[in-house]
Every structure is written in C-alpha cells, then in structure tokens.
C-alpha cells in the first residue's frame, strides 16, 4: 500500500481532532462552583409528592398515630341494673342501678402521653428515612442521565470522525491507493460508533422509565445540560457532625433510646393502683338508697418485673445505638476515604490528559510515514479510551458523593 499524506485525506483533520479533544476536556474536566444542580431539587420534590410508596407509607404512619393516641383513652364506663321480683319476701320488689368509670392512676396518662409523643416523633423519622430510600436512587439515576448525556456528546463527535475517515478511505480506494480491507475497517469503526449511540439512547430511555416509576407514573422533565455540581466536599469531621444531627437513620437510634426511657417511666407509674368511681342506686319496699361508688385495685401481681424489663430494654437500646453508630462511622470513613482517593486520581488523570499533545505527536509520526492512517486511527483510540475513563470516574464520584451526602436529601 502506497503512503498517503494526511493532508490528502483530510486537510484539517488533525486540527479538527485537536479542537474536539480540547473541547471535550473542558466539558469533562471543568469544576463548577455551584454545590448542587440547578434543576435537581425541583425534580426530587416532584418525586416526593408523587411517589406511590411514600404516599402509602405516609397513610400507614397516620393510621399508626391515631392507633397510638387511642391507646391512652379511658375505658368505657359500665352500667348495670338489678330488678328482683321473684322469691319469697314480704317487702316490695328489689331494684338496683349502678354506673361506674374505671381508670388508671392519673399520672399514668401523662406518662403514656409522653411515650406516645415520642413514638409519633419516631414515626416522623421513619418517614424521612423512607423518603431518603426513595430519593437517593432518584438522585443517582439523574446522575446517570448526566453521564449518558456527556458520553453521547463524545460518541457523536467520534461517529462524525469515523464517518469522515470512512468517506476518505473510499476515495483512496477508488484511486487504488489502499485495499478493500482498509475500507472495511473504516466502515466497521463507523458502524461501531453508531451502535454506541443507539445503546446510549436505549439506556437513557430505561433510566427515564425508572424515574417515571419513582414519580408515580408521571414523566420526568430533566435537562442534563443544566446540571452543575462541585465534586469537592467538606472535611470528613464536618460532614459526620452534620450527619449525626440530620441523618434519620442515626436519629432513629437516639429516638429509640428515648422511647425506651419513656417506657420505664410509664412502667413505674403503672405499678400504682387503678381506680374506679361511680354512682349506685338501690330501692326496696318504697324506700331507696343512692350514693357514690369507689374502688381501688391492689397491684400485687400485675406490675411484677415490668419495670425491670423496661430498664433492660433501655440498656439494650443504648448499647445498640453505640455499636450501630460506631459501625456507621466506620462505613462512612471508608466511603469518604474511597471518595478522596478517587478524586485525587481523577484530578491527576485529567490534568495529565489535558496537558498532553498526543494528537500532534501522532500527526508528526504519520507525516513521517512511520505508520498508515488506520494505524494512526487505532493509536487515537487509546486516547479516546482515556477520555472515556475520565467520564466513568467523574460519574463514579457523583454516585459516591450522593451516597455520602444522602442525609441532606
């Protein structure tokens, strides 16, 4: 095969490729000052409003709230009557009427009300945790859309390049300067890039369907090009301090301790006697008697070991909270370190790639006749894979960051 100068194939080919690579580097490598996407939060609010699971869970918690409140109601009053006309007696028929109201010792209701309020607050945290479980996948799917959008821009540019190469190879074949195998390679390269676009479009549709499902069946309107986020994050101690006071998963641990503590107070009050008050009427032989009725239970057996059980439950919750928080901090530290290592690697990689002039070196080697155009094109794939790796690393950083900061959702 005769050597053909690059300028014959495409006069501005290398300059065009250089501009494309530089533009992609700017697109991929730039760090923006904004902390969160301009268009991300409205979408998350829409998903929270429309998500069927969140709606169902909210209804469940509301029913539980009413059920808890009903547990502090007084028992129903009791009414009874006697009318005794039968039997041997010289006096008139005997009749009796009584109405009573039983209730626990008054302090029990205050203690139980405090317990119920604590349990209701716990349910609020349960909802926030469920909300987080719904919105975190949504955030990550939105990040995937941003990644696919950037990837598609790159692949479209490569497809145009591959098409240009294939067209020029056909011209060279017509001039009998190259063989049909070179033309076939160029065509295969072009078709492969076209297939990548189709695959990216299919992946985007699948993600949009998942988001639509999270949004209660309503389509999501999201423009990935408006997404802007800074990959830098706050120091580990600062994030962890904020996480301890805002993450519902960790706050639930403290709330369970508080529930157990309130249960101890309730158990101690329930040892006190139950009371009964009422009205009684008796009538016989034209005479009648009426007055108040009072009764009190003697708590000899019912409260045995209940306080000890509540105290043991509290000790368990305290120990479990400490163990769970330590494990959570360990996992958080592991994630944070993984993120920082990847961020350093990503930063170094992008700086190295943006400082190289590999296309110019390839151009010079080609013009010196060191390899054919197809060999040049194969070499160019190496640097294209490097750009792909940059995009993959950036996407992975976004996913890791969203998981690290999920308590902010």
Automatic annotation (TrEMBL):
One of its GO terms (cellular component) is efflux pump complex. It comes from the Bacteria. The keyword Transmembrane applies. It is found in: Cell outer membrane. SUPFAM superfamilies: Outer membrane efflux proteins (OEP). Keywords: Cell outer membrane, Membrane, Transmembrane, Transmembrane beta strand. One of its GO terms (molecular function) is efflux transmembrane transporter activity. InterPro entries: TolC-like (IPR051906). This is Outer membrane protein TolC. It comes from Algoriphagus antarcticus.
């Amino acid at each position: 095969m005769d050597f053909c100068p690059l300028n014959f194939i495409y006069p501005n080919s290398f300059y065009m490729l250089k501009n494309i690579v530089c533009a992609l580097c700017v697109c991929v490598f730039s760090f923006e000052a904004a902390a969160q996407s301009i268009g991300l939060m409205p979408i998350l609010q829409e998903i929270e409003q429309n998500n069927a699971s969140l709606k169902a869970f909210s209804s469940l918690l509301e029913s539980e709230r009413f059920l808890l409140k009903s547990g502090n109601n007084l028992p129903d009053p009791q009414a009874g009557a006697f009318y005794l006309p039968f039997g041997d007696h010289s006096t008139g028929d005997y009749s009796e009427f009584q109405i009573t109201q039983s209730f626990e010792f008054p302090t029990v209701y205050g203690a139980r009300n405090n317990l119920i309020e604590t349990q209701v607050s716990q349910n609020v945290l349960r909802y926030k945790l469920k909300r987080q479980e719904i919105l975190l996948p949504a955030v990550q799917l939105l990040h995937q859309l941003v990644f696919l959008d950037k990837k598609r821009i790159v692949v479209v540019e490569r497809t145009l390049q591959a098409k240009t190469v294939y067209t020029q190879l056909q011209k060279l074949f017509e001039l009998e300067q190259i063989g049909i195998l070179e033309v076939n390679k160029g065509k295969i390269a072009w078709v492969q890039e076209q297939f990548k676009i189709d695959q990216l479009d299919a992946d985007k549709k699948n993600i949009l369907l998942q988001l639509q499902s999270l949004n209660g069946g309503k389509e999501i309107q999201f423009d990935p090009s408006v997404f802007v986020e800074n990959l830098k994050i706050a120091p580990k101690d600062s994030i962890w301090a904020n996480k301890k006071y805002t993450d519902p998963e960790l706050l639930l641990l403290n709330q369970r301790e508080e529930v157990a503590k309130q249960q101890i107070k309730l158990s101690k009050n329930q040892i006190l006697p139950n009371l009964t008050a009422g009205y009684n009427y008796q009538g016989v032989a034209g005479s009648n008697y009426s007055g108040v009725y009072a009764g009190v239970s003697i708590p000899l057996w019912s409260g045995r070991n209940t306080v000890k059980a509540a105290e043991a439950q509290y000790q368990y919750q305290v120990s479990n909270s400490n163990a769970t928080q330590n494990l959570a901090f360990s996992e958080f530290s592991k994630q944070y370190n993984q993120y920082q290592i990847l961020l350093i690697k990503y930063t170094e990689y992008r700086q190295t790639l943006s400082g190289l002039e590999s296309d110019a070196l390839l151009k010079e080697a080609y013009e010196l006749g060191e390899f054919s155009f197809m060999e040049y094109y194969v070499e160019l794939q190496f640097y294209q894979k490097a750009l792909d790796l940059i995009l993959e690393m950036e996407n992975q950083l976004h996913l890791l960051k969203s998981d690290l900061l999920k308590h902010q959702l």
